[in-house]
């Protein structure tokens, strides 16, 4: 690209983005391509000579866009949302243009100081006490890994990083079976080992871990010579929204001197609405909490906020200061790279600052309340429809259901086929999960631009395609 073309192509990209958002409703939500379709259109070797931007841009529209699943589509009801509200996209254009590395205060003072401020805005917005400070991580997986590393180091008297794990007592971490797989990964990566992640049985409609069983497991592990290190509580588990009794978990942890990390990656955004905060009652006593503004709130991926009661412990676990990273003569500053595993950091605070200022908390609360109400409406319409069963009731805006197959047919195969047909149809996008071993279909409402009519369309599509499937 010639230097003088940068302005033009930047404007074209922004124009394209606005047009793309405007026509999203007319596109199939999930990509309708087959495996290999896109790869077959990409040159096998890199070009030796530069090519005109016109050609590259035309290929982007011709090859790439049809191979995209549209995560910003208002009828995206799969997984969890990854909302990128327009104001946060604008902020990301600016971040991309400046392309700063924000690892140390001095490498981008504005990024550091804004990060401290917007994380505290979010703390206030979520109703968390000021014993929490925080940091923006790339993902909840990273935040949870950090929490597990602190659990490990705290339990081992800060010797794990130095001596390694062989020869140390075997650590134990506790959680329910409803947690996201990022918890499993954190346990592997931290060297604690999958067998030392103890799954506590869940109970009740909220699928919360049985705190009595948690207490008993910790005691029996201690008696058997293990070293319990921490507990990971789930608020809004990925599969069907499993939510622990955080107050009960914190009480057990206090009794045993254990660290508590709360994973509210998805559901945390809903805590800007005071009426939903009962779902994480007791969170004030946790050691760390993660939530992803890049899911429901509208901050473009990646943007995961980790609130921490004692950041000194995290810094003690992760910080390393070779001479080339020392910031001499700058007292009272924060170098956020000491709060995370990667050294390099993007300027993630700017999109939060734009998002919160452009929409305001009141608008964001309204959006979340609508999603919860519309999801409940779809659930109650499906519940009233012959041939459907609600498997797990709405937890905020997430519920799961099944369509009942003809007598003698396999329910799992039937519901897989229903999801496949719905997604091939393209008007909505859904994904499946397993509840107590049986396939169920997840429905979550959460798109930034979703309207009530999109929920109505979802109901009609599900009902219509299920009827066709049953003949
Ligand atoms: N925790 C929960 C409850 C999630 O649903 C997810 C992702 O969907 C994660 C953690 C992992 O999030 P991330 O992709 O930010 O690592």
Class from helix and strand fractions: alpha/beta
Order of helices and strands: HHHHEHHEHEEEHEHEEHEHHEEHEEH
Considering the protein shown, what is the CATH homologous superfamily of the largest domain? Type I PLP-dependent aspartate aminotransferase-like (Major domain)
Task: Using the coordinates above, name the CATH class of the largest domain.
Answer: Alpha Beta
Please indicate the count of domains. 3
Please state how the strands of the largest beta sheet are arranged side by side. Answer: 1-9-8-7-6-2-3
Keywords: Decarboxylase, Lyase, Pyridoxal phosphate
GO molecular function: carboxy-lyase activity; pyridoxal phosphate binding
InterPro entries: Aromatic_deC (IPR010977), PyrdxlP-dep_de-COase (IPR002129), PyrdxlP-dep_Trfase (IPR015424), PyrdxlP-dep_Trfase_major (IPR015421), PyrdxlP-dep_Trfase_small (IPR015422)
Cofactor: pyridoxal 5'-phosphate
């Amino acid at each position: 690209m010639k230097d003088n073309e940068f302005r033009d192509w930047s404007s074209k990209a922004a124009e394209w983005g606005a047009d793309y958002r405007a026509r999203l409703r007319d596109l199939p939500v999930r990509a309708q391509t087959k495996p290999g379709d896109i790869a077959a259109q990409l040159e096998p070797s890199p070009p030796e000579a530069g090519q005109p931007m016109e050609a590259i841009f035309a290929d982007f529209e011709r090859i790439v866009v049809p191979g995209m699943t549209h995560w910003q589509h208002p009828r995206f009801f799969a997984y969890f949302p990854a909302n990128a509200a327009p104001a946060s996209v604008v902020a990301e254009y600016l971040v991309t243009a400046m392309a700063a590395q924000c690892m140390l205060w001095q490498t981008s003072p504005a990024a550091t100081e804004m990060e401290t401020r917007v994380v505290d805005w979010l703390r206030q917005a979520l109703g968390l006490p000021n014993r929490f400070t925080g940091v923006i991580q790339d993902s909840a997986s990273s935040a949870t890994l950090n929490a597990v590393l602190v659990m490990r180091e705290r339990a081992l008297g800060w010797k794990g990083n130095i001596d390694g794990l062989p020869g140390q007592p075997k650590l134990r971490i506790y959680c329910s079976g409803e947690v996201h797989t990022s918890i499993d990964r954190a346990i592997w990566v931290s060297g604690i080992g999958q067998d030392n992640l103890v799954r506590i049985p869940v109970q009740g409609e909220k699928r919360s871990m049985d705190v009595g069983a948690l207490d008993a497991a910790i005691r029996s592990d201690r008696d058997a010579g293990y070293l319990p290190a921490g507990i990971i509580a789930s608020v809004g588990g990925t599969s069907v929204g499993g939510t622990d009794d955080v107050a009960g978990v914190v009480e057990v942890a206090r009794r045993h001197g254990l660290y508590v990390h709360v994973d509210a990656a998805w559901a945390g955004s809903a805590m800007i609405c005071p009426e939903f905060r009962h779902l994480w009652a007791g969170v004030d006593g946790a050691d760390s909490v993660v939530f992803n503004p890049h899911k429901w709130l509208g901050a473009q991926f990646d943007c995961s906020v980790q609130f921490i009661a004692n950041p000194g412990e995290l810094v003690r676990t992760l910080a390393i200061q070779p001479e080339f990273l020392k910031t001499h003569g700058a007292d009272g500053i924060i170098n956020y790279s000491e709060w995370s595993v990667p050294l390099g950091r993007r300027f993630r605070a700017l999109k939060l600052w734009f998002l919160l200022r452009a929409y305001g908390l009141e608008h964001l609360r309204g959006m979340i309340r609508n999603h919860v109400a519309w999801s409940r409406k779809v659930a109650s319409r499906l519940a009233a429809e012959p041939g459907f069963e609600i498997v797990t009731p709405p937890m905020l805006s997430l519920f799961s259901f099944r369509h009942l197959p003809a007598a003698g047919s396999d329910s799992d195969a039937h519901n897989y086929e229903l999801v496949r047909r719905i997604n091939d149809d393209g008007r909505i996008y859904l994904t499946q999960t397993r509840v107590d071993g049986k396939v169920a279909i997840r429905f979550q409402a959460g798109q930034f631009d979703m309207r009530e009519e999109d929920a109505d369309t979802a109901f009609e599509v599900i009902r219509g395609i299920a009827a066709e499937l049953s003949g």
